[in-house]
Amino acid sequence: MSLSGYVSIIRPINSVMIGFAVIVGAFVSKPPSVEAASLVLGFLTGFAICAYSMVLNDYYDIEVDRVNQPERPLPSGRVSPRGALALAVILLCAGLLAAGLLLNLAALGIAALYALLSWLYNFSAKKYGVYGNLIVASSLAIPFIYGGVASGGSVTSSLLLFMAFTSFLSGVGREVVKAMADTVGDAKRGIRSYAIVHGLGNAAKVGALFFLLAVVTSLLPLALLTSVSLFYKVGVVVPDAIFVYLAYEITRKPTAEGALKVKKRALLGMLTGLLVFIGGAF
Q1: Is the pTM of this model over 0.90?
Q2: CA separation for the pair 50, 16 (Å, rounded)
Q3: Tally of domains within the chain
Q4: Which residues form the domain of 231?
């Protein structure tokens, strides 16, 4: 057992991104004032429940990872299955406690729904391909909505909804592409990913399509809204360029190796997009 294994299993970059997405949602919703306590508790909720989901993913996927990613904490022995399960429970309790301390029943309900969807995906929905992809992608959109609710702002803000939908679309694209790199292990577990059912070439086209749709929705605020900040207008070019390039790359090289590279770079595009969203909130 090692500390590095426990850090790795929560995928800290992913979890921090979700935490910051909550903060972005709080600011974009334009509440009269955003209390620091709400931001801290919102971040902790997003971080903890995302980390809980990441641990569950590795816990249920241990046999698949023995084939696809034997260096991961569980198959490599750096974390025991029992230790992973205990960590998941701790993270879930921490996330729900942080949501509860907001004294906002709607926020607590959204956090609980997020946690339930995470468990449902890892326990069974992953086996059903695109349906599982949609659940994962929804977990990228929910934090923006949660941030608006947790801070007492308006979740009907047009920019907030565009951000949530853009994150959802890019998430679907990444999940479809990600499954292209995992076909060997997924087949052993009976997971009917789009890549397994329809082939790598078709999966690459679908993943690329969702990347490009995310680019389109990220640009719609420029045409439809009048309150978009200059930072967003200029900065959105960067993540959009990344996703256009990734769409080209995955269709040019629709292989497991190509998908692995695109999957990792898509995370960079999402992180860049999150920074742009943060700038667009002011």
Answers
A1: no
A2: 9
A3: 2
A4: 157-282
